[in-house]
Amino acid sequence: RNKTLVPAMIEPCDRPIMFELTQTADLSHWKGAANDPAWLSFLADVRQFVQRNRSATDGATRTPAPAAPPAPARVSSAAQVAAAAHAPPAAHVPVGERGDAPSLAVMPFANRSGLPEDDVFSIGMVEDVIDALSRGVYVRVLASAATARFRTSAVPDLQAMSRELGVRYILEGNVRRAGANLRVTAQLLDAATGAILWTQRFERPLAELAALQEELVLEVATQLGAQVHRIEMERALKKPGDLTAWEALMRAIAALRLLKVANMAACAEEARRAVTIAPDYGLAHAVLAMASALHYVATAPEDAGRIRAIRDHIDSALQLDPDNPLVLAYLSLALAWIGDPDDAWRHADRAVRLNSSAAMVHLSAGVACLYLNRPDEALAHLDADIKASPGAPLNSFNSDYQGCAHVLAGRWAQAIAAFDHALATYPDNALALVIKAIVLQKGGHTAEASDLLLHARRAETSGSLAVWELNVNRIFARSAVREELLHHLRAVWAQSDPAP
């Protein structure tokens, strides 16, 4: 009647993911013994849940509760989600003007198999995930000691726990055997409301688990890190005002998901807002330098004044936060785009040595290697970038630069494949359109090259021949094919006509 469920599994089956995430009690082994530990645990959890709901309604007229996700029988927040429907909202915690990366607590993963060896694995899994996440750059992770006391809590009170721990997000999950595989199910929760923000299931063969455990941990951590970054951007974009500097930076990075000049300008504007809010914020100066450099190379020929302004922000970022790998990565991109790849590589290399797990440091190292005519090194770093953060907003640059690296190496078919991948994600990607058109023109596919360049000129009207010559000169400055590429660019440009 209250639309509240406490699910239990009475025989082995492949459950829908919603029942994975509510951590359905596994009673498939139970033969009816009253002293069975799993049965007693199930009864205790149901009793606790019922008593909690009863105490919440004592002295008040009982009304049917709104529909809610199925309540858990073991360690989970889903029951708390149902109870939270009647609870007052969490108190607003004021933040400083600068703000910071969001905080996350990883709860102990429940062992749904009931086997001691899986209990050891679930504990180790949490420790390894915390370690992997702590090396990221867009989330701050609490140490496992902060959440260890919740290991024995059947249904933690999320709102009270989030206030006590001071976190924005909570990760919880479970581990169980599914046939010949070990299955890890994880979900990301909004700590203030209990809302499920992301869910995913991961599996590895039991026979190969020892060899694949690190791979499994990295997959969980990279997927989660990318999701937190995306959620933070969406949260900042929806906020009507009173932004922190961190939120302004999230809006700046979100603007680059589409590689349009207007988006580059919006990125620079939001980064400038972050600098205005917090002038002593090194990351804000670094993002502003990167955004200004990108907008500069996409719209203007050589301009010493604009380059000086970009370098001022580079210098400010280095003075304020010289050992932050994310700051160094953004500065490296800015330096590559304004024509200083040697300095770009110096900062990118240091960023990689400081934190080789962060995706952005590999993107910056890949771009620097590309501009230094080191295509195979560039491709290695660009591959590491994708593996470290699948779905990250700046991954739109990745396929472009992979294509350019293959051009440097004379691998024309691979270059076209990389540009095709970029265009499948974003068909108006001007850099991919232009460089692919050059490659096709070189291969004698004149008509197709002209169509692509016409598409690029209509999609990005600010891209003049002078601007594209500047980009080709910079990207391929140290390559023997630079002059040949410029020749084909001019030829295909003359053949294309942006007029309707």
What this model shows, in words?
By secondary structure, the chain is an alpha/beta fold. The protein has helices at 17-21, 37-57, 78-84, 116-134, 144-147, 158-165, 209-238, 245-255, 261-277, 282-299, 304-320, 325-337, 341-354, 359-371, 375-388, 396-408, 412-425, 430-442, 446-459, 465-475, 482-495; strands spanning 8-9, 25-26, 103-106, 110-111, 140-141, 169-178, 181-190, 196-205. Strands 3, 4, 5, 6, 7 and 8 form a six-stranded mixed beta sheet that branches. A hairpin with a 2-residue loop joins β6 and β7. The longest helix has 30 residues, at 209-238.
Structural features:
single chain; 500 residues; alpha/beta; six-stranded mixed sheet; two-stranded parallel ribbon; 21 helices; 8 strands; 8% strand; elongated
- Overall number of strands: 8
What share of the residues lie within helices?
A: 55-70%
Largest sheet: 6 strands, mixed
Name the average pLDDT: 81
Cα separation of the termini: 65 Å
Q: Name the overall outline.
A: elongated
- The topology string of helices and strands comes to EHEHHEEHEHHEEEHHHHHHHHHHHHHHH
Number of helices: 21
Approximate strand percentage: 5-15%
Structural class: alpha/beta
Radius of gyration over C-alpha positions, nearest whole angstrom: 26 Å
Low-confidence spans: 59-96
